[in-house]
Specification:
Length: 115
């Protein structure tokens, strides 16, 4: 997790303890437990997947998470409803035709909103 690191060469060396990193990791694990408690282990799997990939589309959630599409969609929107996930709209335009715009919704975790 990067909480303890070796900073000095030598016989025993010196070790550094990052309190900031420790508190952040404690906060992430506490939030994960809240997700497990409210939405079960499948909801926590979705939450961890979004956390590890930063920004992820709906169709990728059920592919990578190996969750049925209907259940993944339902749980993802329940997590958004409970403010555990955030949704961001991204417009995609294609070089072939400037008239065609596609809107993609990606999910991410805003740590300040969740905490």
């Amino acid at each position: 997790m990067g909480i303890v690191s070796n900073v000095g060469p030598g016989q025993g060396g010196q070790w550094s303890l990052s309190m900031k990193r420790g508190i952040v990791e404690l906060m992430w694990s506490t939030m994960e437990e809240v997700v497990v408690e409210r939405h079960g282990y499948v909801g926590a799997r979705i939450w961890r997947l979004v956390r590890s990939l930063k920004y992820v589309e709906q169709d990728k959630i059920h592919e990578i998470g190996m969750i049925p599409a209907k259940e993944a969609k339902h749980l993802t929107y329940k997590l958004v409803e409970d403010n555990l996930l955030c949704m961001k709209e991204i417009r995609k335009s294609y070089a072939v035709s400037a008239q065609v715009n596609k809107v993609a919704y990606v999910f991410h975790i805003d740590i300040n909103q969740v905490s």
